[in-house]
Specification:
Elements (H helix, E strand, L loop, with lengths): L3 E4 L2 E3 L5 E7 L3 H4 L2 E6 L6 E6 L5 E3 L7 E6 L4 E6 L8 E7 L10 E5 L2
Parallel strand pairs: 2-10
Antiparallel strand pairs: 1-3, 3-8, 4-5, 4-9, 5-6, 7-8, 9-10
Length: 114
């Protein structure tokens, strides 16, 4: 059974930084492109960053230049380094394959507030 476990969220002031981690079972981090998604209250879940099997990355315009996605295949983990955080980044963050092949994990809450 595949699992995706997100961690690293928390409360941070505007301008602050956080690093999210996603531990994935099996070999999915090496087999699939992976993505970080977020869902803010009252909004649809959106893809904010992705990394392909080849390692190329893409970002939503809203986070470009502030977020960095990376992965450690040996550790079966995907990361999201978030900097210059804004209140509008407040959301529950999830990881999944870039094709959303698996059930969602529990996510990790990120709250940006002073």
């Amino acid at each position: 059974q595949v699992y995706l476990v997100e961690s690293g969220g928390g409360l941070v002031q505007p301008g602050g930084s956080l690093r999210l981690s996603c531990a994935a079972s099996g070999g999915i981090v090496s087999v699939y492109g992976m993505g970080w998604y977020r869902q803010a209250p009252g909004k649809q879940r959106e893809l904010v960053a992705s990394i392909s099997r080849a390692g190329s990355t893409n970002y939503a315009d809203s986070v470009k230049g502030r977020f960095i996605i990376s992965r450690d295949i040996a550790k079966k983990t995907v990361y999201l380094q978030m900097s210059s955080l804004k209140p509008e980044d407040t959301a529950v963050y999830y990881c999944n394959t870039d094709g959303v092949n698996y059930d969602w994990g529990q996510g990790t809450q990120v709250t940006v507030s002073s």
